[in-house]
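[job 0412] stage=fold_complex status=start
inputs:
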Amino acid sequence: MKLPDLTELALRNLRESLLRNSLTTIGISVGVASLVAMLSLGIGLQQLASRRLMKSGLFDTVVVTSRRDLRNFGREEERGGPAPAESRILDEPTRREIEQIPNVLEASPDIRFITELRYEDKPHLTMVAALPASDKSNDAFETVQGHFFSSDGAPEAILQKAFAEELLGKTPKPGLDETNVAELATPLLGKELTMRYAQREAVQTTPSAGANDHASAPGDQSLAGAAYSVVSREQKLKIVGVADLDPESMRGPTRARVFLPLGLAEGLHVMQPTDLREISRASSDQPVYSSVNVRVKNPSQVQKVEDAIKKMGFNTFSILDASRSIQQFFKVLDVFLGIFGSLALAVAFIGIVNTLVMAILERRREIGIMKAIGASDGDIKKLFFAEAGAMGILGGIVGVALGWAIGQVINVGTNVYLKSQSFPPEHFWSVPWWLVAFALLFSFLVSLAAGLYPAGRAARLDPVQALRYE
Amino acid sequence: MNDTGRSPLNNTPAIGTPAIRADQLCRHYRMGETLIRAVDGVTLEVRAGEFVALLGSSGSGKSSVLNLIAGLDRPTSGSVVVHDRDLAQLSREELAHYRLHTVGMVFQSFNLIASMTLAENVELPMRFAEVDRARRDSLAQEALARVGLQARMDHRPSELSGGEQQRAALARALINRPRLLLADEPTGNLDSHTGTEIMNMVRDFNQQLGMTVVMVTHERALAERYAQRLIFLADGKLVGDKSNSAVIASAQTDGARP
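[job 0412] stage=fold_complex status=done
writing structure:
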């Protein structure tokens, strides 16, 4: 029998026992829906997690430090290479060189210093750090009260919540993080802070070795006697934002609570810890950095970039390994959710077998008639397969729609809840096209498998017996 | 349907080559401890174009013989050769092909599929034969017109009288232009008037289309009125075989008529 005829006959037969076949099809739909719902939740959560982690800048960032820092993060593989005293200095030309490595988006110097900030004539001591303009997309600033820096050189500051509390004289209760950032920000935004800092000024007494010989060994005799002066300066800063989240949560004790635009910070020539160590380069105009943050286009390229930078003779650090285990976690989660989703489909499988076996009993005579007028075993088998397959496809389509709808409802519901808890809305439900295709195909194949036994049984039916059956 | 337009072949069915040859045909089966000999060593020959009635009381084995000829059942021993093909040697697939193209069957209980309209019932064998839809539709219409049911094409069997259902079953049996028409008590569920109507149609098919007809019946009068030859069965055995000269003579007279 030709496929269109087969399909037509199958659909006609399904319509004949409408209630029973509908119930079976609904069974398949529920199975597919639970599979789709479970898997899309898993995929959605994974996407949410990786989206969040990507935005946090943790997974696409490589922190570069000089080996001269003697901070090798205790890693075995970095114990080799040149001795710290012979290794390269992390200065501006090096930063530019790193930026030329393929797949590197930007390499920004890490400028941070402990300094005094005056607010309403009261001094506060804290760590200040400079942020590149690209940090605007960091999710810590997504919920910022106020706004991000208006330009890279603007005399503006963003405060971390804890520092805002300190400025307002509020003491955060330990263990409780219930303070409303909006309340903190209102009295602070637009106000002025005065930052006192130590500026490094080169003293042009000794002939400079020149700006471009950074590769020469530090401690070179010709540079002896170089000097710089340290001058106390003040800089007025306008508070433009208060951040709820901590953009530097990974930094631990060295994390800053006040942030400046990078362009501004670079222009200030603030005395850096490395300046003392590299005193021999005092006369140079080129700044030396304690570390450089390298942003890579894609987390998958982090390893390559790290290797390239290590080859240049620097220490690197990224939390790529952590991201790998997170991905592994989600893979396992997907498998488990898929198994639970499939359980409902297994029940539907039994439903199809039952429906078709019942149909054989009911349509015994019809099968006998068909055989008597010339239907082959194959025709009968195909007919039952087509019925099972049609139920599978119909159930699959309804199931995908149902699963999608369940997802939307849960998504909306959870977002209403998140909103009531003053969290930003999230899209943690994802039904990618391949999941739709997979669910439809899976439902079709499961139904065909369920039709296997009934179809074989119907095909083997003895026509003489079947015709005798009333 | 009238008696015009018959082909010359149909006037002399007796001269046909052997259409069916059964040789020592047996169909035995077990029911618990007892061995039932439904067909027990039947040897017979039916010529092409012949109209044969298988007569016998209930349980005589006449339906079993018919099922063996129809390829619905397989003999326990012996052979049944239809148009030079030994049915016992055919595979299940080949038997299905044989039933589809060589045999047309009508039954006492009509056996139309209740969920289908008459047109769909009639064209069903052509679906199995993978005939194009357009051709199927026109052939089904033609076949239903032939049995006078063109107006009832879209009705379901339950909406029709028994006679109409049997006419539709006849149309279905003829749709693939088989060489053999096998009828199992075709008038058993019909009143005598309708039965006559159906039997006239069967006779017309036999005479006009040259189809070999084997009809199972327990009504001797009916057999004598239509069949050219009467074969008697009892307890699975052939117990009589006689020509019906009246019918043969009438067929010849009909054939001679201009």
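[job 0412] summary: Residues 192-209 of chain B form the longest helix (18 residues).
[job 0412] exit 0
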